[in-house]
Amino acid sequence: MRSAFIPGVVGSIVLLLFLLSVSVLASVPVSAQYVAPLCGDNFCDPDEQGWCSDCDTVSPYCGDSFCDPGESTWCSDCTVPSYCGDNFCDPGESGWCSDCDVKPFCGDGFCDSGEQGVCAKDCGACDEKFLDSYRCGTNGYDRQREKQKSDCSKEWVTLDTCAYGCRKIWADSGLPVGCEPAPDEGCTPVVSCVSLGCGKTDSCGNFCGSCPAPAVVDNAPTATINVPASAAPGSQLSILVTGNDDKDVSQLLLFDSSNVQIGTPFDCAGILTSCSHAFTVTAPSAFSTAYTFKARSKDSANQLSGFVSGTGTTTAAPAVPPVVPPPVVPPVVPPPITPPPVTPPPVTPPITPPAAEVAEMPKPLQVIAVKFPLQPLFMRALNFPDTDCVRPGESALLAVKVQNTAKAALKDISFAATVPELGVRISKGPVKLKANGKLTQLLRLNIPEDAEEGTYYMRFSISNNKFSRTVHRTFVVDSSC
Asked: Which residue spans of the chain are classified as CATH 2.60.40.730?
């Protein structure tokens, strides 16, 4: 049982102070007054003990060190770290406090149903956030909103301060509190925040809460491609593809002109809003041939960008001077051989009666015509169309042009180029060339990376089962080419 004794003299002083406070409050405009702790509000506040009638009752009151129902948002009894009635069975409360009467309870070491986000002791930390509870501050001017802290405790945070006092409007619907209008200033408060709109204030200063977070928009990625405008036939092309996204780019993809994917996609490492990669492809092997490549990018949500494309053309064939066929050499006919006069041997008179033997005359020599065979395949040109200087580890393009000068087709024609000093050999064929037909063949010499710099001889041969022809050309290996 709790009691309070007020001496007569103290009571008279208290009554006088009370009358003075009432007269002062009466002089303040109603719109500027606020509800603050005072003697007569049926709550025994900390500074009212010993003189105010609010503390005469034996009922629970603010200041009795117990957080009683209705005191949690304003009374200092409820600001201590723990108390009986806070739904926590704290040390020292077992056996007398109702917080420990029934299990499960907050503080029993188990995260029970209904304790998630409420009981930090059993369920861990809470999300720090604002709650949908509003009130006027104890000074009567602050508009406050309840906030949940990471330890699951709650506190009131001041949003702003009203110039003419705070009032609870729409409190029954849980909507925000508003500000009193200025003295003699008419205003029409809205009925609800639904008609006012989220995040707005009416003419009376009533503010409607916070707006919901805008929807997150994930845009599709974009892509760019950089294709070399020209390249030698059969050379390696480096195609740069770049993807961009508002969140992250996951893959880059390369396609040919028919939208057929080339190779495997390139995976971008990590979370990148921009990702680039150089793809290596082979240019067409023919001269003056157009090529087109396309690209796309993909983000982590598997959204694909549109196709982007780039084009180029292989270099034109090098100009070849006209080839004048060698003059036809007529067959060499040796002059006729005139046999020397034959002198008959002297006649030996017969020694014996038999008749003397007569020697036979030698036969004259025959005339023989000698013919030199013609080469039916004429080599019109043999050169390096790009350059005859090549760096170690790279390749040189060799072009040969031939013509069949015979009246019949030539079969099984083979081409071969060797550089014995470098251990390089490449061949093509066999091919067929019709009568009076022309043919251009391209051969690529791959120079070893460890080749020494200098001038080398290349041996080039053309042959089939009826003829063979060999020529030599020089080229330079130099790292400064």
From this structure: 222-314
Handedness of CA 47, 51, 54, 55 (dihedral sign): positive
**Residue 204 and residue 31: Cα distance in Å, rounded?**
12
Give the residue range(s) of CATH 2.60.40.10 domains in the chain.
377-477
Hey, what CATH topology would domain 377-477 get?
Immunoglobulin-like (2.60.40)
Round to whole Å and give the CA distance between 56 and 128.
41
Question: Which residue bears the tokens 């009467």?
Answer: 101
Fold classification of 222-314 (topology level):
Immunoglobulin-like (2.60.40)
Q: Assign 329 a pLDDT band (cuts: 50, 70, 90).
A: confident
Q: How far apart are CA 443 and CA 386, in angstroms?
A: 12
Round to whole Å and give the CA distance between 119 and 476. 83
Beta strands 424-433 and 290-299: pairing type?
unpaired
- At 293, the amino acid letter reads F
Tallying the residues shown for the chain, one arrives at: 481
Nearest to 173 by CA among 152, 195, 154: 195
CA dist., res. 310 & res. 292, Å (int): 6
What token pair was written down for 309? 């494309």
Tell me the pLDDT tens digit for each residue of 189-246: 665 666 666 667 766 666 666 555 556 678 999 999 999 999 999 999 999 999 999 9
